[in-house]
Amino acid sequence: MFGLSYVIFKRCLALVSAIMLLIVSIDERDLPDPTGAQIIDRQRYVLEDYYMSNQGVTNDGTYYYFSGKKNLGKANMKTGEIFLVNTSPIPKELQELGCDHIGGLSCYNGIIYAAIEDGPDYQHPFIALYDAETLAFTGRYYELPQELHVEGVPWCAIDVENQVLYTAEWSNATVLNVFALDDLHLLRTVPLSEPIDRMQGGEMFGGKLYLSCDEENDLKRVFSVDPTTGEVKVVFTRNIGKAFEAEDLTVYPDADGKPVFCVLDRGARRKSMNLTKYQLL
Ligand SMILES: [Ca+2]
Fold first, then answer.
1. Cα 183 to middle of ligand 1, angstroms
2. From ligand 1's centre to the CA of 53, what distance in Å?
3. Does residue 2 belong to any structural domain of this protein?
4. Residue 15 belongs to a domain
5. CATH number for the domain that contains residue 138
6. In this structure, is residue 109 part of a structural domain?
7. What is the number of domains present in the chain?
């Protein structure tokens, strides 16, 4: 009897999910094209997958790793299907300090680095490390200097080549913070050529740091930063509109080694998460 109820429940869920995906695709059918890039694919997440994927994204070439505010998820990059979740990843001792929000993710060498912050006073910015295979907490976390993260730590990005991790202030950021990857002690700050606002996440690719920004206009541009010189450039403009909230991004190489930018957005009316893939023109 329980087995039959479960099958009916799962079928109902699949039906609701299909209806929501249809509504979302109708809602978004007239979105303008991006400038400087083209969309090559879009994966949409609704219902429970929405809660698993509404903050952060990174990839290791085989899997996407997502964060919701209080969750971690793992998805097959070919199908986009989220097949593994950790619904309680924030360690107890960080919860006791008020940490209740996982933001952007980056990964390296089988470890996911997750930005975790408290609020509303943002006194405790942390990077916590998770096993990419199981999504289990590794027991390792590092508190970052609060004076460099007065609005929390919404994201982090790993630079494998230089064995460092980057963060910045969420908005009106004037410097890039550079931490040693092994113990996350602060190495230096790099002045940015211009301030960047409302950074929601980033990832390194080909020696550049790419950033998704939730600008308070329709543009929602992706920026690059040269982490050595601090030079800031606009890479492409997504034109998705104010109704969307831009979140984290991740980048991987296509068959020719060119970057595929996967940017996560909370859709209009908060019904779906979109992982949209762009390639430069
Ligand atoms: Ca990321």
1. 20
2. 12
3. no
4. no
5. 2.115.10.20
6. yes
7. 1
Q: What is the pLDDT of residues 46-78, one digit of tens each?
A: 998 988 899 999 999 999 999 999 999 999 999
Residue 65 lies in a domain: yes
**Domain hosting residue 254, numbered range:** 31-280
3-state secondary structure the chain: CHHHHHHHHHHHHHHHHHHHHHHHHHHCCCCCCCECEEEEEEEEECCHHHHHCCCEEEECCCEEEEEECCEEEEEECCCCCEEEEECCCCCHHHHHCCCCEEEEEEEECCEEEEEEECCCCCCCCEEEEEECCCCCEEEEEEECCHHHCCCCCCCCEEECCCCEEEECCCCCEEEEEEEECCCCCEEEEEEEEEEECCEEEEEEECCEEEEEECCCCCCCEEEEECCCCCCEEEEEECCCCCCCEEEEEEEEECCCCCEEEEEEEECHHHCCEEEEEEEEC
Q: How far is the CA of 6 from the centre of ligand 1 (A)?
A: 36
- The Å distance, Cα 65 to ligand 1 centre, comes to 9
What's the pTM? 0.95
Distance from Cα 124 to the centre of ligand 1, integer Å: 20
Dist. CA 24 → ligand 1 center (Å): 24
161 CA distance to ligand 1 middle (Å): 16
Q: How far is the CA of 95 from the centre of ligand 1 (A)?
A: 23
